[in-house]
Amino acid sequence: MASTAGDVLRNNLSILSPDQVELANMLIEMEQSHLFEHWPEPGIDDDEKRAFFDQIQKLNSSYPGGLAAYIKTARELLADSKSGKNPFEGFTPSVPSGEVLTFADDNFLQYEAAGVREARKAAFVLVAGGLGERLGYNGIKVALPSESITRTCFLQHYIESILALQDASCRLVEGECHAEIPLVIMTSDDTHSRTVDLLESNSYFGMKPTQVKLLKQEKVACLIDNDAHLALEPNNKYRIQTKPHGHGDVHSLLYSSGVLKNWHEAGLRWVLFFQDTNGLLFKAIPASLGVSTTKQYHVNSLAVPRKAKEAIGGITRLTHKDGRSMVINVEYNQLDPLLRATGYPDGDVNSESGYSPFPGNINQLILEIGPYMEELTRTGGAIKEFVNPKYKDSTKTAFKSSTRLECMMQDYPKTLPPSARVGFTVMDAWLAYAPVKNNPEDAAKVPKGNPYHSATSGEMAIYRANSLILRKAGFNVAEPVLQVFNEQEVEVWPRIVWKPKWAITFAEVKNKLSGNCSITQGSTIAIKGRDIFLEDLSLDGTLIVNAVDGAEVCFD
Question: Phi/psi zone of residue 388: left (φ > 0), alpha (ψ -120 to 50 degrees), beta?
Fold first, then answer.
């Protein structure tokens, strides 16, 4: 009589530790006996068998609730996917409340000042688990230069921006201020060692090593069918196939590592989450943090105006017929049909402002630590997941390839109670959003008028934003010209860059300028120092100013 997979496993229990036997029983209970079908008798491949359970232990401990919870959730979500269940069934969309800011007006300046005051009570979390393969680059994305004048990489720019905020915030405190704003970087197997190397070889770009903590994201098990049977590696019967779980893991990592608890006990009030290649983000951070503290938002999503049906998710209030409500990101391809199905026959359309009333989500979040800690204590850090299997045919009974559960950082509000204060802050895209996602070939195929989101467009967006900021401060900045780089037509402004320590807010920019300053279109200026003042400067050419801390430089 042929032995079953269960028999095969039972024969091998003697080579396993008590903890491994417990995991084996859990797998059998969760109907995963197929994993042992091809195991030989004890004495053959015993080290490989124990290594298999080492991996199972890792998968079990890194997921909130363990592997059994992962399999149970997977079965539920796969059943919903097969039946075509609408995740928004019973929900009606409406426009949530939030703050729409106009750069440089009195309201903006007040929020910016409030944000700087609050910054010393903040912590930053950079989600940086990805490589630059989509960009045609095989390194970590945060090592890419954000622009070609100073060749400052994204990670250096982010750290220098946090240090500039730390310094500006401390200057507002009477007496001594020893605040050190912490930075957590979520890495992955692909990026961890290279991120460590980048930091260590550059002396952490001026930040104290004790301010920076890396949390490595683990992968999750792949699934081969609607019954959530775990997938084995094609060429290794002792290895579960795994894939990334998504950037939503950042919440469980902050909770399980104890980092969030330490921040809370240290009296910090805010956590700011951001992603790896948006060179403009910190121009929007002070005012957005000011909105959070002024409006007392538990969750504040940074957003930009979006055109109706534009390929960017919309921040939406969803109210269920049973009374539940939440403010979350709804993907653009779901928002329009949802609106049409709930009493909006035209779907997602532009308002009189020329934009959709549902602002565009840019995946940057500000959370208040107290309520955040309470919620993660309740959920164990788990975030609502989804599954996206690729089916072989319309019967939806078999997959083309293995799938897995995924989660997104911005779905955190899905489990919040109705009493949670969830809002958004909208700023112009030119100021806040220029992600670097696409390689030149893919960017060149983007329909005319849509953003390229390439390294080329990201760099040009930095020069444009700095030019427009100087203009608002009274600087006479020449008009841009249209040029084509890497088959992408872009506006080319004067190449203007400055280190964050020179000015992290618009108020600081204005304080560093006086008189009648001007710059021609083909000119370049790079300002690298805190106390550099421009008075009646007329620039037609290149000016690069380096100044050490404590040295005051004035150009007129």
Answer: beta
For 363, other C-beta atoms within 10 Å of its C-beta total 21
Cα–Cα distance, 416 to 418 (Å, whole number): 7
Nearest in space to 468 (alpha carbons), one of 478, 456, 459, 482: 478
What's residue 5's pLDDT?
66
- Which pLDDT score, from 0 to 100, does residue 9 have? 85
Strand-pair category, 220-221 with 325-330: unpaired
Q: What is the separation of C-alpha 188 from the centre of its chain, rounded to a whole number of angstroms?
A: 14
C-alpha 213: how far from its chain's center? 17
Distance, in Å, from the CA atom of 447 to the CA atom of 333, rounded to the nearest integer, reads 18
Nearest to 124 by CA among 213, 28, 52, 205: 213
How high is the pLDDT of residue 418?
85
Contacts of 365 (CB under 8 A, 6+ apart): 272, 273, 299, 300, 301, 302, 409, 410, 412
Residue type at position 357? P
Which SS3 state, helix, strand or coil, does residue 269 take? coil
Beta bridge partners of 546: 528
Rounded Cα–Cα distance for residues 500 and 504 (Å): 5
3-class DSSP state for residue 378? helix
Helices (H), 342-500: 369-379, 429-432, 440-444, 455-472
What is the block-wise mean pLDDT of the chain (556 residues), using blocks of 10 residues?
A: 68 92 95 93 94 96 94 96 88 93 97 97 92 79 95 97 96 85 95 96 98 96 96 95 93 96 97 94 97 97 91 91 90 89 89 92 96 95 91 92 94 91 95 92 85 93 98 97 94 98 97 96 97 96 94 86
- Distance (Å, whole) CA 420 – CA 376: 14
Q: What is the DSSP string of 9-27?
A: HHHHGGGS-HHHHHHHHHH
pLDDT at 1: 37
CB-based contacts of 393, cutoff 8 Å, min separation 6 = none
Helices (H) and strands (E) in the chain, counts: 16, 28
The two beta strands, 236-240 and 488-492, are unpaired
Q: What is the secondary structure of 414-446 as a DSSP string?
A: GG--TTS-EEEEE--HHHH--B--B-HHHHHTS
